[in-house]
Amino acid sequence: MTALPPLPQERRLLTPIPGPKSQELQARRLAAVAGGVGSVLPVFTARAGGGIIEDVDGNRLIDFGSGIAVTSVGASAEAVVRRASAQLAAFTHTCFMVTPYEGYVEVAEALAELTPGDHAKKSALFNSGAEAVENAVKIARAYTKQQAVVVFDHGYHGRTNLTMALTAKNMPYKHGFGPFAPEVYRVPVAYGYRWPTGADNAGPEAAAQAIDQISKQVGAENVAAIIIEPVLGEGGFIEPAKGFLPAVRQFAADNGIVFVADEIQSGFCRTGQWFACEDEGIVPDLITTAKGIAGGLPLAAVTGRAEIMDAAHAGGLGGTYGGNPVACAGALGSIETMKELDLNARAKHIESVMKARLSAMAEKYEVIGDIRGRGAMIAIELVKDRTTKEPHPEATAALAKACHQEGLVVLTCGTYGNVLRFLPPLVIGEDLLNEGLDIIEQAFTSV
Ligand code: PLZ
């Protein structure tokens, strides 16, 4: 295999975005790919790495999306490529359930070491985030012998049948795709910016409401699992107000309920800690991971207390490709890179640069209602009026489009479609980070 020359870490626009070759591919795509599968920006990728995505027209875009929080180490990180390539040449697959291999075990050992808590831990590996969440539910049900699952307003957990039921937002995730799995109950979350009595009260009040609803409407004794994203991702980068997570976690412990932290988006250095739940000292019973774990290769995991993880009967968990050897090699390369480059520190630095620049923008542009997030998981919520906080999805879409046209990949999210989110690779260079922020600032002027 011949190594590619390094990908220059410079934005370069040679054509309008998308360029002619991307448009040709997009026409073929529209004829051949199901319409239900969308794309944020129909620019076809030729190469990607560091903070750059190079398209088939030779344009180089700055990446503030990381393929939705996946390529934290970059999309062609040296250690990921090296280890995954070596594994590819050795063998692509045997199925861990047929003849196992060391890489799977090494990933499980790394997860035991990196996840919060010093109790005995075990892991099971899967292919996607949704699959990990489904398996966390299976494991919690096997352990507690209960069925109910509690999730939260604005939560996102996937697109499979059970995880659609766990996900809050109707469009585009659930609409027309029911009936959904039973025994799923949704309770309030401490969304500080929109809490009726103010952000300072959100933590304790939302926790009291959630606990009251679980106790009175579901019955704590019927609950197998409480599942929450320590920073809610698709729902709008909502950091539950302080005190909320510890209160809910304590309630779970007091009632024998398995507390599951879904760290699929927030995990692996994204928020400046290995896992976002560490911020308030939360030790979950189970933790689901995916995305950033393997530098772009499809891998997901459920990790947790050994006695809970062992509750499912032998043969009860699995899947043909779960913990594929190439994906495991990628994960070991990704974790190696995170440690070597201290990407937690890097994420914290990205937060300080972004928040300073965005705060300055908020002084000029009234449409910015809130700036929030941690590490390299930062967002702004856009509103029509700072007093009424009426969501402004139109401005959000227009700003994203303006950024795209200037060669900056940004994503939107939020229950109301009014959150612009920034998820740069943690390895992005200082110049690209600042240039991306310049483009965002320009977009405010032009919109
Ligand atoms: N849990 C917290 O963020 C995936 C979804 C994008 P999969 N988020 C991106 C889309 O529109 O499909 C996610 C997540 C959290 C679970 C998942 C699901 O992970 O790997 O997409 O299945």
Structural notes for this entry:
With 447 residues, this protein is α/β, with parallel strands linked by helices. 38% of the residues lie in helices and 16% in strands. The chain has two domains: 20-63 and 342-446, Aspartate Aminotransferase, domain 1, CATH 3.90.1150; 80-340, Type I PLP-dependent aspartate aminotransferase-like (Major domain) (Aspartate Aminotransferase, domain 2), CATH 3.40.640.10. It contains 13 helices and 15 strands. The strands form three sheets. Strands 4-10-9-8-7-5-6 form a seven-stranded mixed beta sheet, with helices on both faces. Strands 1-2-3-13 form a four-stranded mixed beta sheet. A four-stranded antiparallel beta sheet has the order 11-12-15-14, with helices on one face. Helix 4 packs parallel to helix 10 (325-340) and helix 11 (343-364) runs parallel beside helix 13 (430-446). The longest helix has 22 residues, at 343-364. It is globular, with a radius of gyration of 21 Å.
Distance between the termini: 46 Å
Low-confidence stretches: none
- β-sheet strand percentage: 15-25%
Q: Could you please say which CATH topology of the largest domain applies here?
A: Aspartate Aminotransferase, domain 2
| Radius of gyration, whole Å | 21 Å
Give the CATH architecture of the largest domain.
3-Layer(aba) Sandwich
Query: How many helix segments?
Result: 13
User: What is the strand arrangement across the widest sheet?
Assistant: 4-10-9-8-7-5-6
Query: Which sheet architecture does the biggest sheet show?
Result: 7 strands, mixed
Q: CATH H level of the largest domain: which superfamily? A: Type I PLP-dependent aspartate aminotransferase-like (Major domain)
Q: Number of domains in the coordinates?
A: 2
**What is the CATH domain class of the largest domain?**
Alpha Beta
Strand element count: 15
- The share of residues in helices is 25-40%
Mean of residue pLDDT values: 98
Structural class: alpha/beta
Order of helices and strands: HEEEHHHEHEHEHEHEEEHHHEEHEEEH
What form results from the Cα inertia axes?
globular
Can you list the ligands bound to this structure?
Answer: ligand PLZ
